[in-house]
Design goal:
- By secondary structure, this protein is mainly α.
Length: 208
């Protein structure tokens, strides 16, 4: 729910209530208005499928809603890490660096900026840095590394993590590029090849 941007305290309760109501509502609608006789087994199958669809519908909606923020976070996180390295090298604290980087990324990645501001509020509320960063990674759906616990340099860890995230972003782009020819096969066969056949064979048919 948090990754989908639903941070209201009652969001979880409303989700379960809505899922139950939707499942019961769809099942009742099919029970009352299904165009099958109540004595048939197909009728009860439709009622059961309606209940299952109503039960799974909200979960599918949440999963679909997570995709857009997650794509933005994965795209903007390497830039965020690079700017955070610059702030750390300049001598800023982690809290000041998060605030500065959030303001710099507010136009390009507004959702990422909102999560960074939430992390700053947690730090100001006396939550430990490690817990605040762990909650940030959970909200973004991105796994982090425990460099602070391992005792390594924070700037060096940020550089390594930034390079790793940038490599993953490049790998995802290459994967989409390699999959493009296979995805274009069906549209070309359905839309382009018939038009080519018409253009090539039409003069022959006219002559015949």
């Amino acid at each position: 729910m948090i990754q989908a941007g639903l941070c209201h305290p009652h969001a979880v309760g409303c989700f379960f209530l809505g899922r139950t109501a939707l499942a019961v509502g769809l099942a009742m609608l099919l029970f009352l208005f299904a165009p099958v006789r109540p004595a048939g087994s197909v009728f009860w199958l439709l009622v059961g499928l309606g209940g299952i669809a109503g039960y799974l519908g909200p979960s599918l909606y949440i999963d679909e809603r997570i995709k857009t923020p997650k794509a933005e976070h994965q795209s903007g996180f390497p830039d965020f890490m690079d700017l955070l390295v610059v702030c750390a090298d300049a001598g800023l604290s982690m809290e000041a660096g998060l605030d500065r980087v959030g303001r710099e990324l507010s136009d390009s990645y507004p959702l990422l900026n909102a999560n960074l501001q939430m992390t700053n509020l947690e730090i100001r509320a006396r939550r430990t840095m490690s817990d605040a960063l762990e909650h940030l990674g959970y909200r973004l759906g991105i796994k982090g590394h425990g460099s602070a616990e391992l005792g390594s340099s924070i700037t060096e860890a940020l550089r390594v993590y930034s390079d790793d995230m940038r490599h993953k972003r490049l790998s995802r782009a290459e994967e989409k590029a390699y999959a493009l020819p296979a995805k274009l096969t069906v549209p070309m066969m359905v839309c382009i090849f018939p038009a080519l056949f018409v253009v090539i064979l039409l003069p022959v048919f006219v002559q015949l």
